[in-house]
Design the sequence.
């Protein structure tokens, strides 16, 4: 496992380098997408939705970067095996390296985005915003579990890439990113991301409202998703590259 | 030592249909899936010091057999016993990232082949010298010509794989797409690699090369062993068969 992690980290570094290749803004590109989403949703909230949200700037920023991390990382991990099919069929290489390298790449992006957001929020007076980093490990493990599962299923069901990207687009609307859900409607209640959002917001700018039930719930969700995802992956690891048609 | 005992390998034929609809339909379908038999009941044993040839038409199962020995594929039936480290030489281009420079790609391939940063740095000069591309070290690969890519990928793969493996499997990797002088150089390098390995299996359509290097040869046809024995006799028989 140590060897797999080492190789994944090296690959993630080169993947970051490729993403920056020949661009003028380089690393800043990672932050531009969530920033643009922030600007649009900020505008929509103020012009269209009439109810007020206290501390709306950190509320929105946390929502945008967390959902952006989820969408970008799961989409990358889902294609980790199918995009390296030829290499996996010509060398004896542990397929997990490619999943983890995509995961680490997304994680570095997220940490970079978060650093900028924390700086902005600190400047605006939200001095506890750095506490968000405490949520990142839980949330990242939850995402990794989903990534393991998706990459296995995508080797058999090619449509999954379309289905998942459509579902991810819907996340921007069905999660309380720029609005407050006054009651936990079905679609929010059964979406684990909404609990991470709640916890992250409590940690970042509303420390008095931290519920230990939510902390425990997020811990359990991370563990369950990671264990299930990894078990599915391990059961298919030996034949995963053969599954691709 | 390599010992293969009644190896069979088959794939389900699903006509490339991999949508959700077909996935669900297959889950509940009682129809027996159609199998494509890639290998059927292959058995042989090789001892240290043997250089073994593998011939047969395209699609006869040579690559599948080598991939099973290399541990890349799993057989559906039978037992495979391979002692020691295995190197499978094929598909030199795989894993290269065309947006990155030659130097970065050497690090990627080296890492994937299990080398650490120091080992890769130590071999960097050998790769650059061998490929004769010292002026292009920091140039991204998409600017390379086909010939330059062939030189670079060949040199990188060969110098970053474990040296002196116990088992060396060569799958149609005898310098295709290279100019004559570089081809000679690669064949010489592969020969050094062959000499350093304990057991070598060479799958090729270059019968002259098989004849010069292999004492024993296996002729495969439709996933089965057609004949096995002295290289010259097998090649003569095969050439008569294909004519």
Sequence:
């Amino acid at each position: 496992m140590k060897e797999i992690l080492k190789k994944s980290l090296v690959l993630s570094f080169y993947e970051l380098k490729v993403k920056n290749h020949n661009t003028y803004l380089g690393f800043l590109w990672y932050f531009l997408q969530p920033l643009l989403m922030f600007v649009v949703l900020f505008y929509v909230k103020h012009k269209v939705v009439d109810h007020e949200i206290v501390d709306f700037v950190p509320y929105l920023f946390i929502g945008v970067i967390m959902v952006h991390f989820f969408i970008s990382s799961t989409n990358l991990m889902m294609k980790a095996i199918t995009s390296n099919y030829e290499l996996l069929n010509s060398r004896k290489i542990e397929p997990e390296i490619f999943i983890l390298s995509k995961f680490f790449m997304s994680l570095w992006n997220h940490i970079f985005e978060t650093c900028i957001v924390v700086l902005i929020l600190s400047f605006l007076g939200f001095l506890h915003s750095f506490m968000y980093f405490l949520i990142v490990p839980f949330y990242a493990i939850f995402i990794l579990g989903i990534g393991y599962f998706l990459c296995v299923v995508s080797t058999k069901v090619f449509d999954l890439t379309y289905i998942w990207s459509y579902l991810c687009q819907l996340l921007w609307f069905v999660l309380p990113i720029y609005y407050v859900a006054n009651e936990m409607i079905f679609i929010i209640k059964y979406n684990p991301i909404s609990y991470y959002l709640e916890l992250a917001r409590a940690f970042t700018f509303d420390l008095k409202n931290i519920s230990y039930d939510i902390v425990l719930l997020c811990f359990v969700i991370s563990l369950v998703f990671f264990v299930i995802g990894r078990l599915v992956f391990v059961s298919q690891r030996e034949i995963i590259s053969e599954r691709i048609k | 030592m390599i010992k293969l005992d009644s190896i069979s390998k088959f794939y389900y034929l699903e006509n490339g249909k991999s949508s959700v609809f077909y996935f669900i339909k297959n889950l509940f379908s009682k129809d027996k899936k159609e199998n494509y038999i890639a290998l059927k009941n292959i058995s042989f044993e090789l001892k240290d010091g043997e250089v073994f040839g593998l011939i047969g038409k395209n699609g006869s199962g040579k690559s599948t057999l080598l991939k099973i020995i290399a541990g890349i594929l799993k057989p559906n039936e039978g037992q495979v016993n391979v002692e020691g480290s295995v190197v499978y030489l094929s598909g030199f281009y795989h894993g290269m990232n065309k947006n990155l420079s030659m130097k970065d790609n050497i690090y990627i391939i080296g890492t994937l082949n299990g080398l650490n940063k120091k080992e890769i740095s130590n071999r960097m000069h050998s790769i650059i010298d061998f490929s004769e591309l010292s002026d292009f070290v920091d140039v991204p690969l998409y600017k390379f010509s086909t010939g330059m890519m062939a030189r670079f990928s060949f040199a990188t793969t060969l110098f970053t794989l474990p040296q002196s493996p116990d088992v060396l499997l060569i799958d149609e990797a005898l310098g295709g797409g290279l100019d004559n002088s570089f081809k000679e150089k690669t064949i010489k390098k592969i020969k050094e690699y062959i000499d350093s390995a304990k057991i070598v299996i060479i799958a090729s359509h270059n019968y002259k090369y098989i004849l010069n290097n292999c004492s024993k040869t296996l002729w495969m046809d439709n996933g089965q062993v057609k004949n096995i024995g002295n290289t010259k006799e097998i090649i003569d028989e095969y050439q008569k068969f294909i004519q």
In short: Chain A has one domain: 54-243. Chain A touches chain B through 30 residues (CB under 8 Å). The mean pLDDT of chain A is 85. The longest helix of chain A spans residues 96-123.
